[in-house]
Specification:
Elements lengths: L3 H30 L6 E9 L4 H9 L6 H13 L8 E5 L16 H17 L10 E8 L11 E3 L4 E7 L5 H15 L33 E2 L5 E2 L5 E2 L7 E2 L2 H6 L4
Parallel strand pairs: 1-2, 1-3, 3-5, 6-9
Antiparallel strand pairs: 4-5, 7-8
Helix pairs in contact: 3-5
Length: 259
């Protein structure tokens, strides 16, 4: 019969073993996600973020082809960097997730951010309703009615766990901009970093500009995906209407192992 000290040591050993397995799996997933030997399988999980009836009607109407612009964007940009895949990203649509994810909270501390990350990964595992093969990346898209006057919360992408949480508008008029946010957060899960000033959202030069060497520099005609805005003047930058107006810049490409 095990005494208390032995039992405690055994419990600690088992917990450390579990942590080691999780860490190893996370590391292997991160390596696999950016080796670009095979297409990356991305599953979109829609949620009704505000509980409104019009939001629910939109969620009920969703079809996988409505996310084809994300696949096309990655195919087009990967080809510019000679990635040897016709479809580096394949996007699938899961059934609606009824539960709501944990909230990160405003201006969280480092400890709170880590705790939320762990909670989000646990929540995503519990509520993964995708019936097909395990996806490489899971993007939970929380839809809100454009009639709702509340400002959308900031979207997030977690490299650990390969999970994105996107806040989007439940209206066909916003599908282009929703796709920009989805692609941005998807790239976060692959290790890409933001390329805008967090104080004001303005793209950082040169890495946040689609054409940093353009003469004259402003206005820019496109956005760099991890900057998320088209710089029009020294103080004005606007969100692109669709992924047709967005490119993957050299630094972002390097961060996700495209060159």
């Amino acid at each position: 019969m095990l005494n208390a000290r032995t039992f405690r040591r055994l419990r600690i050993f088992i917990l450390l073993l579990i942590l080691l397995v999780i860490s190893l799996n996370t590391w292997l997933s991160r390596i696999r996600s950016t080796d670009w030997q095979e297409s990356l399988w991305v599953v979109i999980y829609p949620l009704n973020g505000d509980g409104r009836a019009d939001t629910q009607r939109y969620v009920d109407s969703l079809q996988a082809q409505q996310f084809s612009s994300v696949r096309q964007f990655f195919a087009r940009e990967a080809a510019r960097y000679d990635v040897p895949l016709d479809d580096p990203v394949i996007v699938q649509l899961a059934a609606q997730v009824r539960a709501q994810p944990p909230e990160p909270g405003p201006n969280p501390s480092l400890f709170a951010s880590v705790r939320w990350s762990l909670s989000m990964r646990w929540w995503a595992w519990r509520h993964d309703n995708w019936a097909g093969p395990a996806p490489d990346v899971r993007i939970f898209v929380r839809y809100h009615s454009p009639q709702n006057q509340n400002t959308l919360a900031h979207s997030l992408g977690l490299q650990k766990g390969l999970i994105g949480l996107v806040n989007a508008f439940a209206d066909a008029r916003f599908e282009g901009q929703n796709a920009v946010v989805m692609a941005h957060e998807l790239l976060h899960t692959l290790g890409a970093t933001d390329k805008y000033d967090p104080a004001n959202g303005y793209p950082l030069w040169p890495d946040g500009f689609a054409e940093p060497d353009r003469v004259p520099r402003l206005p820019q005609l496109q956005a760099e995906i991890m900057a998320g805005r088209v710089a029009l003047s020294e103080r004005q930058a606007v969100m692109p209407l669709s992924l047709q107006e967005v490119i993957v810049g050299p630094l972002t490409a390097a961060e996700i192992n495209w060159h």
